């Protein structure tokens, strides 16, 4: 039967994760940062699905569902914060939010 | 089928790159949806149709719509595109790229040590559901609590 | 009798509590009645107990009241042990204590802190009773420390004057040195013998330890340290003369009749340990001898009426230690009793003199007071006779027994005896120097004063006079306590020795007479000799012990304290704080408030961790 080596799935997850990380680190627009975070979360979900496929078991998918829930909750809260931030500072530049320095 | 996986993988990577390079936020969002859908295809190939459906509905559907609403509320026009462009000088990319490539290199080193062919057998909705409402019922409860907390927090934060 | 014993310390304790809780709001008559009455009740109880106990013919009696604490198999009880020794001590403490309280009721009447005075005194008697009745060493230690605390409170009774506070601290700290030694001794005994019950402990020591074994020596040395501190013997004797800062009845109660005898009691109580360590016992004798001679010489040179008596106390307790050292246990306890009589008498009479002459302390500013102060004169006469061991007074019998025991001892007995006799000679000189200077000769100042002595002050003096004179005929019932160690043999003392012991004190009195009464010899002429002057100065300062301790301990301590003013150890912790602060400042710089910087550090940290994971 045709098949895919496990490392290919994991490499894909790794690439997506690294790209998400680059996005988080480079962008100053907080909406982009949140989107990049979504990419990273999604990449880890992909890794779980690959693992589920590897063991031919549904537990990995359950874990993906949990991650999905987490992402949904996180996005809701994060977007709420963005709206609040925009309301107070009239900007989406996260560099503005630097009052909490030591 | 296998080819489908690689094509979908390539689409996911390319569209993700486009997301982090894009200056127009709505375009970036569209690319992100594309990336998520591509990943959903990968899920399907990997034998997780239920996860693939959820990825399309919840991630690419619901969550992205949320983003879209927020972007509409923030009312980002042309000036925000210029602003994005001004923020993305080449200097900004150096350190994150190096860090991310080191991380990726490390991941690759570790990942390539494994050698196992994926069987690509389908684990269907029945199995997942049986597991979800069997041994993992507590996790479902916790997830619902998490969602409730997210709901309350989002309502509170976005309130005027 | 068992039912009554607990009342002994309870009466004074109740007195203390009621006086403390009313905090001086009671009228003075009530305070005096409570203060003296509680001790009086205690004395009556003690008398009944003693009568029944001695009538019953038993050698000892244990009254267990309750378990103090229970930790594993260590369950010291709150229990009393009654035997001949305890009976004697209990009667002395309550009897003499009652007389002193009675006297104080009159003596202290003008003092604003009348109530506080009696509260302390009652607590003191209660602690002392716990000390002598205790069945185990822990309870004894409770009483021991209670006595120490009360002595501190009472010496510093007039705390408004800084030097009184100093004297109180000096007494407290000096005795603390001894107490610490004793506490370590208790630890050692418990660790080695597994019990603190005195009788069990002594029995175990006797069966487990060989004579002269290291443990016996160590244990008895440590206990001796405690006894030396409490009883003001060399080298911890310096606190007692200064302790005269308190009111005179306190000097009578604490520094003559009861507290300082606690050390003697402790050694007598644990005499079995000392018999197991003959060298320590011999050391005891030498300490006693040296102390009694040093204090005797010093007493000859003092001016202050109370300091003379203080040094005579040290000297007399030296005799008791000498007696303990030569194994004359019962003779020492006997001397303790007679000493309590005549020294309480002397101190109370001195109180009358001082009180009548408006707080005059220097004997050379008195003189010719025998008509003015008849009761005090009679008291001093009888007290000094007993102190100087005039034949057939109480002091004669007890001192005689100690000296005979010393003479019978093999080895250094002869030297100890000679030293003791020399001490008796000195005692004759200094005690009658006091009498001659104060009560004879020409009157110097204070012509008008009448003797201040109400009924409550005169009665104790008269009773004590009787006991000081005839107390020597009392037979103390301690034979059963010391029976197993003491050698009961006929005294093989030649008549010559007896004659010497009788004549020498008289000789001392005679010398004193020639110097201070008939002025056949002149002190001034003697003092013209530079050597004599220097010797006088040396003795006057108590053999320079205070200066020596100041040089050896106080000044190095103060010096070290000054060096360490900024607390060297503390600097280590201050450094820790400083390091933390500097590190904080440095790390705080990384806290830029830039979200991307944080994300970058998290990513960097992950990379670092994975690298470590891969490499290792």
Automatic annotation (TrEMBL), chain A:
The keyword Cell membrane belongs to this UniProt entry's keyword annotation: yes
Topology with respect to the bilayer? Multi-pass membrane protein
Transmembrane ranges?
6-25, 30-50, 62-83
Q: Name one GO biological process term.
A: ATP synthesis coupled electron transport
Q: Which InterPro entries does the protein's record reference?
A: NADH_UbQ_OxRdtase_chain4L/K, NUOK/Mnh_C1-like
The broad enzyme category this protein falls into is translocase
**PANTHER family (alphabetical):** NADH-UBIQUINONE OXIDOREDUCTASE CHAIN 4L, NADH-UBIQUINONE OXIDOREDUCTASE SUBUNIT ND4L
What's the stated role of this polypeptide? NDH-1 shuttles electrons from NADH, via FMN and iron-sulfur (Fe-S) centers, to quinones in the respiratory chain. The immediate electron acceptor for the enzyme in this species is believed to be ubiquinone. Couples the redox reaction to proton translocation (for every two electrons transferred, four hydrogen ions are translocated across the cytoplasmic membrane), and thus conserves the redox energy in a proton gradient.
Complexes and interactors: NDH-1 is composed of 14 different subunits. Subunits NuoA, H, J, K, L, M, N constitute the membrane sector of the complex.
**HAMAP family assigned to the protein according to its UniProt record, in alphabetical order:** NDH1_NuoK
Name by which UniProt lists this protein:
NADH-quinone oxidoreductase subunit K
- Organism of origin is SAR86 cluster bacterium
**What gene, per UniProt, encodes this protein?**
nuoK
Automatic annotation (TrEMBL), chain B:
The record's subcellular locations are: Cell membrane
Major site of localization recorded for this protein: membrane
Read off the InterPro entries from this record. NADH_UbQ/plastoQ_OxRdtase_su6, Nuo/plastoQ_OxRdtase_6_NuoJ
The EC class name is translocase
Name the protein family: Belongs to the complex I subunit 6 family.
Give the membrane topology, semicolon-separated if more than one.
Multi-pass membrane protein
Q: What does this protein do?
A: NDH-1 shuttles electrons from NADH, via FMN and iron-sulfur (Fe-S) centers, to quinones in the respiratory chain. Couples the redox reaction to proton translocation (for every two electrons transferred, four hydrogen ions are translocated across the cytoplasmic membrane), and thus conserves the redox energy in a proton gradient.
Name the UniProt key words of this record, in alphabetical order.
Answer: Cell membrane, Membrane, NAD, Quinone, Translocase, Transmembrane, Transmembrane helix
Complex formation: Composed of 13 different subunits. Subunits NuoA, H, J, K, L, M, N constitute the membrane sector of the complex.
A GO molecular function term, named singly, is: quinone binding
- Record carries keyword Disulfide bond: no
The portions of this protein that span the membrane are 6-21, 28-46, 52-71, 92-114, 134-158
**Which Gene3D superfamilies does this one have?**
NADH-ubiquinone/plastoquinone oxidoreductase chain 6, subunit NuoJ
The reaction(s) catalysed by this protein are:
a quinone + NADH + 5 H(+)(in) = a quinol + NAD(+) + 4 H(+)(out)
| EC number, as in UniProt | 7.1.1.-
Q: What is this protein called?
A: NADH-quinone oxidoreductase subunit J
Annotated Gene Ontology cellular component terms: plasma membrane
UniProtKB/TrEMBL annotation, chain C:
Q: Where are the transmembrane segments?
A: 6-23, 30-54, 78-105, 117-134, 140-159, 171-190, 210-229, 250-268, 280-301, 308-330, 336-354, 375-394, 414-440, 452-476, 496-516, 537-559, 571-588, 595-615
Which InterPro entries does this chain map to? NADHpl_OxRdtase_5_subgr, ND/Mrp_TM, NU5C-like, Proton_antipo_N
Entry coiled-coil feature ranges = none
Molecular functions (GO terms): NADH dehydrogenase (ubiquinone) activity; NADH dehydrogenase activity
This protein's membrane topology, according to the annotation, is: Multi-pass membrane protein
Q: Name one GO cellular component term.
A: endomembrane system
- The residue ranges of the NADH-Ubiquinone oxidoreductase (complex I) chain 5 N-terminal domain are 68-118
Q: What is its main location?
A: membrane
BP-aspect Gene Ontology terms: ATP synthesis coupled electron transport; electron transport coupled proton transport
Pfam families named among the record's database cross-references: Proton_antipo_M, Proton_antipo_N
Query: Residue limits of the NADH:quinone oxidoreductase/Mrp antiporter transmembrane domain?
Result: 134-425
Q: Could you tell me where this protein is found in the cell?
A: Endomembrane system; Membrane
Query: Which keywords does this chain's UniProt record carry?
Result: Membrane, Transmembrane, Transmembrane helix
Domain of life from the UniProt record: Bacteria
Protein name, as recorded:
NADH-quinone oxidoreductase subunit L
Name the source organism.
Answer: SAR86 cluster bacterium
At the highest ranks, the source species' classification is: Bacteria, Pseudomonadati, Pseudomonadota, Gammaproteobacteria, SAR86 cluster
């Amino acid at each position: 039967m045709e098949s895919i080596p496990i490392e290919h799935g994991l490499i894909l997850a790794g690439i997506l994760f690294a790209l998400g990380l680059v996005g988080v680190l480079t962008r100053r627009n907080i909406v982009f940062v949140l989107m990049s975070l979504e990419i990273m979360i999604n990449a880890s979900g992909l890794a779980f699905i690959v693992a589920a496929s590897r063991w031919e078991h549904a537990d990995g998918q359950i874990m993906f569902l949990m991650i999905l829930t987490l992402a949904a909750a996180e996005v809701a809260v994060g977007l709420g914060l963005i709206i609040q931030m925009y309301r107070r500072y009239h900007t989406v530049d996260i560099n503005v939010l630097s009052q909490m320095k030591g | 089928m296998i080819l489908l996986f690689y094509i979908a993988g390539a689409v996911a990577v390319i569209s993700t790159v486009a997301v982090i390079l894009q200056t127009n936020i709505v375009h970036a969002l569209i690319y992100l949806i594309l990336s998520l859908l591509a990943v959903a295809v990968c899920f399907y190939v990997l034998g997780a149709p239920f996860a693939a459906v959820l990825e399309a509905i919840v991630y690419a559907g619901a969550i992205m719509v949320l983003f879209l609403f927020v972007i509409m509320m923030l009312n980002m026009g042309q000036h925000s595109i210029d602003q994005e462009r001004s923020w993305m000088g080449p200097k900004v990319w150096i350190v994150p790229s190096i860090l991310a490539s080191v991380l990726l290199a490390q991941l690759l080193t570790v990942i390539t040590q494994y050698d196992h062919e994926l069987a690509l057998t389908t684990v269907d909705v029945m199995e997942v559901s049986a597991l979800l409402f069997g041994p993992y019922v507590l996790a479902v409860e916790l997830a619902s609590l998490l969602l409730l907390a997210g709901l309350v927090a989002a309502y509170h934060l976005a309130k005027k | 009798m068992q039912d009554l014993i607990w009342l002994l310390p309870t009466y004074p304790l109740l007195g203390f509590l009621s006086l403390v809780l009313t905090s001086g709001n009671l009228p003075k008559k009530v305070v005096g009645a409570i203060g003296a009455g509680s001790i009086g009740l205690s004395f009556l109880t003690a008398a009944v107990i003693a009568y029944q106990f001695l009538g019953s013919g038993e050698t000892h009696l244990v009254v267990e009241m309750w378990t103090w604490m229970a930790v594993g198999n260590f369950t010291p009880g709150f229990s009393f042990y009654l035997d001949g020794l305890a009976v004697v001590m209990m009667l002395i403490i309550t009897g003499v204590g009652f007389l002193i309280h009675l006297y104080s009721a009159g003596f202290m009447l003008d003092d604003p802190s009348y109530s506080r005075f009696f509260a302390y005194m009652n607590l003191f008697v209660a602690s002392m009773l716990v000390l002598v009745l205790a069945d185990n060493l822990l309870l004894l230690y409770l009483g021991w420390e209670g006595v120490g605390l009360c002595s501190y409170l009472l010496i510093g009774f007039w705390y408004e004057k800084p030097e009184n506070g100093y004297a109180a601290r000096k007494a407290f700290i000096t005795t603390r040195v001894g107490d610490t030694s004793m506490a370590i001794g208790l630890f050692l005994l418990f660790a080695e013998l597994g019990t603190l019950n005195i009788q069990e402990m002594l029995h175990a020591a006797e069966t487990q330890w060989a004579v002269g074994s290291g443990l016996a020596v160590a244990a008895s040395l440590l206990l001796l340290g405690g006894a030396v501190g409490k009883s003001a013997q060399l080298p911890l004797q310096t606190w007692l003369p200064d302790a005269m800062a308190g009111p005179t009845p306190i000097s009578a109660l604490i520094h003559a009749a009861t507290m300082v005898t606690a050390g003697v009691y402790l050694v007598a109580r644990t005499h079995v340990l000392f018999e197991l360590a003959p060298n320590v016992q011999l050391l005891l004798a030498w300490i006693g001898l040296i102390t009694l001679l040093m204090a005797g010489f010093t007493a000859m040179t003092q001016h202050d009426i109370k300091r003379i008596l203080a040094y005579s106390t040290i000297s007399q307790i030296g005799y008791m230690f000498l007696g303990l050292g030569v194994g004359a246990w019962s003779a020492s306890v006997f001397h303790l009793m007679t000493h309590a009589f005549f020294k309480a008498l002397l101190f109370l009479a001195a109180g009358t003199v001082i009180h009548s002459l408006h707080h005059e302390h220097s004997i050379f500013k008195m003189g010719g007071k025998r008509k003015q102060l008849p009761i005090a004169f009679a008291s001093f006469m009888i007290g000094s006779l007993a102190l100087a061991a005039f034949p057939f007074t109480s002091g004669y019998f007890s001192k005689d027994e100690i000296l005979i025991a010393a003479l019978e001892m093999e080895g250094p007995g002869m030297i100890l005896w000679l030293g003791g006799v020399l001490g008796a000679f000195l005692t004759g000189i200094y005690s009658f120097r006091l009498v001659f200077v104060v009560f004879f000769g020409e009157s110097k100042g204070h012509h008008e004063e009448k003797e201040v002595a109400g009924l409550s002050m005169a009665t104790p003096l008269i009773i004590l006079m009787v006991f000081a004179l005839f107390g020597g005929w009392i037979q103390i019932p301690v034979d059963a306590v010391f029976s197993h160690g003491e050698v009961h043999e006929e005294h093989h003392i030649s008549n010559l020795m007896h004659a010497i012991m009788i004549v020498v004190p008289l000789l001392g009195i005679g010398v004193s007479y020639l110097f201070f009464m008939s002025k056949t010899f002149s002190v001034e002429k003697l003092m013209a000799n530079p050597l004599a002057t220097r010797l006088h100065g040396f003795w006057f300062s108590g053999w320079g012990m205070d200066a020596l301790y100041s040089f050896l301990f106080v000044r190095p301590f103060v010096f070290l304290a000054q060096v360490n003013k900024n607390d060297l150890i503390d600097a280590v912790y201050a450094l820790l704080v400083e390091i933390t602060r500097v590190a904080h400042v440095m790390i705080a710089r990384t806290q830029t408030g830039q979200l991307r910087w944080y994300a970058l550090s998290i990513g960097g940290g992950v990379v670092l961790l994975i690298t470590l994971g891969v490499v290792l």
